[in-house]
Amino acid sequence: MRRSTLLWTVLGISVAIGLFVVKHAVQDLEDRLHALNIEIISDRDAAQVLQAEWSFLNEPARLEALSREHLGLVTISASQTITLPELIQLIAAKKENARIATTTASSKPPTVENKVVNPDWLERTLITLNKDQ
Amino acid sequence: MNEPKTKMVEKIRIEGDRKTAIETGRNRLIIAGAIFSAAFLLIGIRVIKVSIFNHDSGPRYTRSVAKDEKYTGRADIVDRNGVLLATSLNTQSLYAHPRLVLDPEQAAIKLKNALPDINVEAVEKLLRSKRGFVYLKRRLTPNQHYAVNRLGIPALYFQRETRRIYPLGPLAAHVLGHTDPDNKGLAGIERFFDKDLRTRQTALSLALDARVQHVLEQEISHAMKSFGAIGGAGLVMNVNTAEVLGMASLPNFDPNRANAVPRLSHFNKTTHGVYEMGSTFKIFTTAMALELGNITLRDGYDATNPIRIHRYTIRDYHAKKRWLSVPEIFIYSSNIGAVKMAQKVGKESHKQFLGQLGMMKSVQIELFETGAPIPPKVWRDINHMTISYGHGLAVSPLHLVAGVSAIINGGIYRTPTIMRRHPGNPTKGQRIVSKQTSIKMRHLMRLVVEKGTGGKADVPGYLVGGKTGTAEKASDRGYKKKALISSFVAVFPMNSPQFVVLTMLDEAKGNKATSGHATGGWVAAPAAGAIIRRIAPILALKPIEDEVSAAQKLALESKTKSFGGLGVAAH
Question: Which among B60, B211, B542 is the nearest to A60, CB-wise?
Fold first, then answer.
């Protein structure tokens, strides 16, 4: 009789304490979740504002004015465009011409001269391009 | 248990004053004990109630914000490359419960410090009203929000409200449209997709390219200034997918402050306005004659004398007064030749052909602002004749661009769209002319730029082709001589058409540089050329190295009857 009373009392008290602890743990977690949600929403708002600002700063008319002022960029003309295979051919031709020029002094001027290219730069560019592949 | 004690107690007898004193003490103890027990019991019950049956404010339930959950009122609109064109930002609106305001006068004065642009008397009046809810100021800036919050006036509250923002300002204003203060779409895409934008979770992708749109607006605006035009319109469309990459109508407006400008500038000239487009219609007449009229590029007509019908005379602007071949009719834009070609096909077929090209009904684009064409009420012979060179049938610039695309892209008409399409999944098409007719027209349009009226639109490397158009504006009584609609429709590159560009100026005036001319070839063609020069690299088109041989190849293809071995539009 006494033992079972003691057992039930201890059991009852421990369940009550357990319930209390769990309840408070849940409450704490919910508070944290709530705080995190608020943070997420305010971060999203901030991200949204930043995106709008990014778009605003990238307004084509503004970029155009900036590039004119600081970079001096102009529209690409057709003669300034070349594909990579054409570029490789061009370099080969340049080298060949240079070789011929050193061996025979009276050789014709290279036919590719009309395309203004800097072979050293091309060399370096191609090496980096090949590395990337 | 108590029995022995009581017995013991009973054994001791206390009498007299002492007894009463003990009795009193005991009674007091009992009363105090009862009060304390009751208090503890009450507290105990309350503790149980609070901790177990606490349903005062409903069950507490906090859920997590889903990863892709929408957080603003209205979905974003982006261009084909993801550039943000329209977005919604969260702002705070200030409202009050007037009945709970303690001192309206003081509150209004305090608010004036935080929000300098408010009217103190008006705010005080609002705060004194008997209403339960009043807006004091909507959409505060973050700094204003902070300032009002710092005042700590009771009964003032904030409400989250979204504000529609167009970060690129007036760019593509007519396509995007605008919204009212409650974020309801009032025009353009905002209106057409109003319901969708309210509910969708992801951004809406348009076919527009912000860069192309910018170039288009800038060049047309430049041309308008140079030639003193009162309005302008421009379109860039992919001929194969019918996606509209640029759509400009000038003067334009800033959708962030849509009400700050006259309503007139809200009018979308490219889709809503209908105009008699003039000689650009000869593209359709010539294609029709090649397709249905059983004529070839070697045929021709006598254009020596003007045509007289009833009291009208049809004459040529660039009159050659001789026999003209079909390419010459097209290059020199001969009205007489166009009329004769149309007559060869016949009135009914002419009408039907234009109907197939969508010239008889509104374009089914994703905008409500579309204008219905104005055809003649009855197709008399005179209408049949004038429509062959673009007078007597008013259509929108979008109609023209869609029709030209169909003639040039291999003969398939597709309804233009502002929405981005998957490459390889264009809108459903309908064949209008054969591939061979289409190639012949490519050749003819290239000739216009090479040798004819469209020379100012040429851009080296992109094999531009096109057709000029100049029309007198219709008024209540006949036509106004000095008020012209000058246009140019260009396609490039002509050996494998990709894009069509239309430039149109309303009431352009000639200047010294054009020797006083205000026709399409003088005022609209240079703008088209400038646009192509700038957008072709943006659209990643590879320039043609040897334009002369590409044009020769095109000419050869156009003269070949069957296409057994020839690769069409080899590039």
Answer: B211
Q: Are strands B77-78 and B204-205 parallel, antiparallel or unpaired?
A: parallel
The three-state DSSP-derived secondary structure of B266-292 is: HCCCCCCCCEECHHHHHHHHHHHHHHH
Beta bridge partners of B249: B233
Whole-number Å distance between alpha carbons of B567 and B571: 9
B353: left (phi over 0), alpha (psi -120 to 50) or beta: alpha
Distance, in Å, from the CA atom of B31 to the CA atom of B18, rounded to the nearest integer, reads 20
Structure tokens at B230: 């009162």
- pTM equals 0.79
* Residues of B catalogued as catalytic: 279
pLDDT tens digits, B327-353: 999 999 999 999 999 999 999 999 999
pLDDT digit string (tens) for B52-76? Answer: 766 555 555 556 666 666 555 789 9
A48 has a chain B CB within 8 A of its CB: yes
Contact: A48, B51; criterion CB under 8 Å: no
Residue of B nearest to A77 (CA): B533
Which residues lie closer than 8 Å to B216 by C-beta, 6 or more apart? B234, B235, B236, B246, B247, B248, B531, B535
Give the pLDDT score at B144: 85
Per-residue pLDDT tens digits for A45-93 = 888 889 889 999 999 999 999 998 899 888 888 778 888 888 888 888 8
Burial annotation B486-525 (CB, 10 A radius, 16+ → b, else e): bbbbbbbbbbbbbbbbbbbbbbbbbeeebeebbbbbbbbb
Tokens of A8: 């039930």
Chain B residues near residue A33 by CB distance under 8 angstroms? 62, 64
